[in-house]
Design goal:
By secondary structure, this protein is an all-alpha fold. It contains four helices and two strands; from the N terminus they run ααααββ. Strands 1-2 form a two-stranded antiparallel ribbon.
Amino acid sequence: MPRGDSEQVRYCARFSYLWLKFSLVIYSTVFWTIDFLNDNIRRGIKNYYDDLDFKNIMDFVQKEFKCCGGEDYRDWSKNQYHDCNAPGPLACGVPYTCCIRNTTQVVNTMCGYRTIDKERLSLQNVIYVRGCTNAVLIWFMDNYTIMAGLLLGILLPQFLGVLLTFLYITRVEDIITEYSVTDGLLGPGAKPSMEAAGTGCCMCYPN
């Protein structure tokens, strides 16, 4: 095989490997992000009534995206007041921001009473049963043009940087191989072109 063809094959192989690795990183990042978001939402739910900032954000997300909890409405059992074994009126219920209601209705803060221990089908007309993580991801998919622009703006420069690095390394390897074959540079039988003579502190004069 001619030298030029072998170089093209090596470049294509490196590019294919790099593209495969990049795709795997993207897919693993998506799944890792979903689990990461669900875990953080559950931790926030535990301190829902103590962390006012998280409470306002969670209430806003649940109302705007029509969702409840992180993975689903059962995540609210992580809160000590909403746990089914807890005393009080909030036990086994969800916040009112999870409730399905008309905008003209008066807010009933107890509309989510005793819903955590019920099945999804029986609650579809009472509360939002889907989780907020999936609801937000679906919104991103519906607005894919905006998200695609953001992802390209963030990931494309990094991908090009890695690609150029691989191409540079490949070119350096080609140069080293070329000099090793033609001139014996760095080869196992390479010998110095001149011998040093003399003794003492200065051994820089060729014979």
